[in-house]
Design brief:
The structure is a single chain. The two termini are 50 Å apart. The protein contains 28 helices and 26 strands. A hairpin with a 2-residue loop joins strand 5 and strand 6. The chain is α+β, with helices and mostly antiparallel strands. The protein has five domains: 91 residues, 2-Layer Sandwich (Alpha-Beta Plaits); 231 residues, no CATH class; 88 residues, Calcium-transporting ATPase, cytoplasmic transduction domain A (Distorted Sandwich); 148 residues, HAD superfamily/HAD-like (Rossmann fold), CATH 3.40.50; 97 residues, Calcium-transporting ATPase, cytoplasmic domain N (3-Layer(aba) Sandwich). The strands form five sheets. A seven-stranded mixed sheet has the order 14-26-25-24-15-22-23, with helices on both faces. Strands 6-5-7-13-8-11 form a six-stranded antiparallel sheet, with no helix packed on it. It has a six-stranded antiparallel sheet with strand order 16-21-20-19-18-17.
């Protein structure tokens, strides 16, 4: 046992996770050209009071020009004089009660801004404004305006429509051009073609003083499809890459020791064989072997182990782990891109690219829809050229009417309207949907893989029956434990105080890094710590040991079960899913926990690579895997899974890699998430059915030449409203 504080690096809160991602601070900070720009991660901030305290505390530091906190990203951006170091700022923040870690600004550059969302909103606003004005002009034409008046209204409509469709239609044009360059069709190809031909034909009709023009239909098409595109974008809560977030966790600097002289250098300058000093509370910057010193290491980010492990000479340590109690001198075996942490980042990047190949229902529909629409429009043009004896004007009118009336407005809204409604329903239950296709993928799962520590459990040790140890031993243990901030000592002290026990006043209390705490009382020696250090026989449980002149006592602990965990496991099993438990902890506690919660399929002592391989292997065998995890060691598996969920208290990188973030502590609503996903998929399929029925009715009308601009506009609006109302049934 070690007796030092374990930094809560993965801490998070619902307010931080659910806050909007439109903050401008990152962009402003990157634009400043100060002599020193420093980014620090603040994992424990959660409110406006934290922002004020951090900013005031930093701006009062010598050399600091400006400090701005981003609550969404849980970071502070500091502009300072060249002599100000990140270590000094971290120390100042810790002095006022805030944990801080340095982030590599270069790795995180240009990842915070939601430029695509702002652009879509701007295109949508312009299209809406123009559409309303052209609709007013069109009403006058539909009401019977003739000759010069009709032509004037058409020319005014053209003046509004042409620049609007050029500007607001950019998302469709770019997507269509990319698809055509790749020699394929997507939904944006018929959209772009319909907009361009509608405007072109309307200009031709207007120049010939024609009775009908499609300016209003072109703008309606643009507006409704931009609305669908924006709804789809809003369901994606994160624009950052999990691989980039992982890379930012790597420690950018290390203290190299050469002939007893300490020198702070960048990690990229280190080579195998160098010695680096890792002070208590610092994150290990390299992979290596302990050369000197004893301490305990918090490996929870790497392995998921809930408790620290002893580290002495010849112990292997990895980048990203946290040194807790004593200084360590580490001999470097790998640094920078060669570390285990960086290899996990590579695994995540590969897994992310694999998941990106998922084809949504809308994509699969587009493969059939786009060529059919084009062929029908072409067939209408050819047929009417033959029927009309070569009347180009009439044939083009009917071909464009076919394109417009079969336009995929309803098709474009079918998925985003449902996912937005379903996301709102789940958000009210504490689930934040980040990915546009997460709902579809969740409805397909047949296997659920749970992490243990921090996921199905709270990651907090709870002492077993303290009354069985006697009030005298418990009083002495409290006297020792209250001098420590080790997680077991904190849990033991809190539980002992709750029983009403007073601590025994001890003398000469001191901590031995990596081992425990010792003290004297009336000349007798008492120790609380590791079994081998106090002379006790180790038990096959999580425990800390007390030695007294009369013998030894083992205080055992269990991990606090997350509320609703059993209900969630039962709900998934009731839906026919295979349930698995995979953990980095030792086999005994994992198997005991699995038996307690009712899971038979168990994997223990799993490394991050093992977890990723397990999920990938299940996927390769045809399984659709839901991964639920919270730590750095789960990040690659979360990215490799068909769909993934992490709690709000998870490490930032795990939350970024996940498709769904669970905002509460109670896991009971997880079962409802699967039910909602199945219903959402059914609604999406119903929306496609509505679109198909609409086209079956509308296409003959267009092909026969009865589709006027008014009919086209009304038909588009009716189909879009029908799809949206069907989606709202989920709410």
């Amino acid at each position: 046992m070690t007796l030092a504080e374990v930094p809560r690096s993965g801490a998070g809160c619902p307010a931080c996770v659910a806050a909007p991602a439109a903050e401008e601070i990152a962009a402003r900070a990157s634009e400043r050209a100060g002599p020193a720009s420093i980014q620090l991660s603040l994992p424990t901030i959660h409110c406006a009071g934290c922002i004020s305290a951090v900013e005031r505390g930093l701006e009062a530091a010598p050399g600091v020009r400006e400090a701005r906190v981003n609550l969404t990203l849980k970071r502070v951006y500091v502009e300072a004089e060249p002599g100000v170091t990140p270590e000094a700022l971290i120390g100042r923040l810790e002095g006022i009660g805030y944990e801080a870690h340095e982030l590599d600004s270069a790795v995180l550059a240009a990842t915070e801004n939601d430029k695509a969302g702002r652009d879509l909103l701007m295109y949508l606003a312009v299209a809406f404004f123009a559409n309303m004005n052209v609709m007013l002009l069109s009403v006058a034409v539909w009401s019977g305006a003739e000759d010069a008046t009709r032509d004037l209204f058409h020319w005014i409509s053209a003046a509004i429509t042409i620049p609007t469709v050029i500007f607001s239609g950019q998302p469709f044009y770019r997507s269509a051009a990319k698809a055509l360059r790749g020699r394929r069709l997507n939904m944006d190809v018929p959209i772009s073609l319909a907009i361009i031909l509608a405007v072109g034909l309307s200009l031709w009709e207007t120049s010939l003083s024609g009775h009908h023009a499609y300016f209003d239909a072109a703008l309606s098409l643009t507006f409704f499809l931009l609305l669908g595109r924006y709804l789809d974008h809003r369901t994606r809560a994160s624009a950052r890459s999990a691989a980039q977030e992982l890379a930012a966790l790597e420690v950018p600097r290390a203290v190299r020791v050469v002939d007893g002289v300490e020198d702070t250098v960048r990690v990229t300058e280190l080579a195998p064989g160098d010695h680096v000093l890792v002070r208590p509370g610092a994150r290990v910057p390299v992979d290596g072997v302990v050369a000197y010193g004893t301490s305990e290491i918090d490996r929870s980010l790497m392995t998921g182990e809930s408790l620290p492990v002893f580290a002495g000479p010849d112990a292997v340590v990895h980048a990203g782990e946290i040194n807790l109690t004593g200084p360590l001198t580490v001999s470097v075996t790998a640094a920078g891109q060669d570390t285990a942490l960086h290899r996990i980042a590579d695994l995540v990047a590969v897994a992310e690219s694999g998941r990106a190949n998922y084809n949504s229902l809308a994509d699969r529909a587009a493969r059939l829809y786009a060529p059919v629409v084009h062929l029908m429009a072409l067939a209408a043009f050819v047929a009417w050229m033959w029927i009309s004896g070569g009347d180009m004007r009439l044939s083009l009118n009917i071909a464009v009417a076919t394109l417009i009336i079969t336009c995929p407005c309803a098709m474009g809204l079918a998925v985003p309207a449902v996912t937005t409604a379903a996301s709102g329903r789940l958000y009210r239950k504490g689930l934040l949907i980040k990915s546009g296709t997460a709902m579809e993928r969740l409805a397909e799962i047949d296997t659920v893989v749970f992490d243990k520590t921090g996921t199905l459990t709270m990651g907090l040790p709870v002492p077993d029956d303290l009354g069985a140890h006697g009030s005298g031993n418990l009083s002495v243990a409290l006297g020792l434990a209250q001098a420590s901030s080790h997680p077991l000592a904190l849990a033991l002290a809190e539980a002992a105080r709750a029983t009403g026990i007073d601590p025994t006043p001890l003398e000469d209390v001191r901590e031995v890094p990596g081992y425990g705490v010792e003290a004297t009382l009336n000349g007798a020696r008492f120790r609380l710590g590791r079994a081998d250090w106090v002379g006790a026989d180790a038990v096959d449980r999580t425990a800390t040991y007390l030695s007294t002149p009369t013998g030894t006592v083992a205080f055992t602990f269990t991990d606090a079960l997350r509320p609703g965990a059993e209900a969630a496991v039962a709900a998934f099993r009731a839906m026919g899913a295979r349930i698995m438990l995979v953990s980095g902890d030792a086999p005994a506690p994992v198997e005991a926990f699995a038996a307690r919660i009712g899971i038979d399929d168990v994997r223990a002592q799993a490394t991050p690579e093992d977890k990723a391989r397990l999920v990938q292997g299940l996927t390769n065998n045809g399984a659709r895997v839901l991964m639920v995890g919270d730590g750095l060691n789960d990040t690659a598996a979360l990215s490799a899974a068909h769909v993934s969920i992490s709690p709000a208290t998870a490490l930032d990188a795990a939350r970024v890699a996940s498709d769904i973030v669970f905002l509460g502590k109670d896991f009971t609503p997880l079962g409802d998430a699967l039910t909602t996903a199945v219903k959402a998929r059914a609604r999406i399929q119903e929306n496609f059915t509505i679109s198909t029925i609409y086209n079956v009715i509308a296409v003959p009308i267009a092909l026969l030449g009865f589709a006027t601009p008014l009919a086209a506009a009304l038909a588009m609006s009716l189909s879009s409203i029908s799809v949206s109302l069907n989606a709202m049934r989920l709410r």
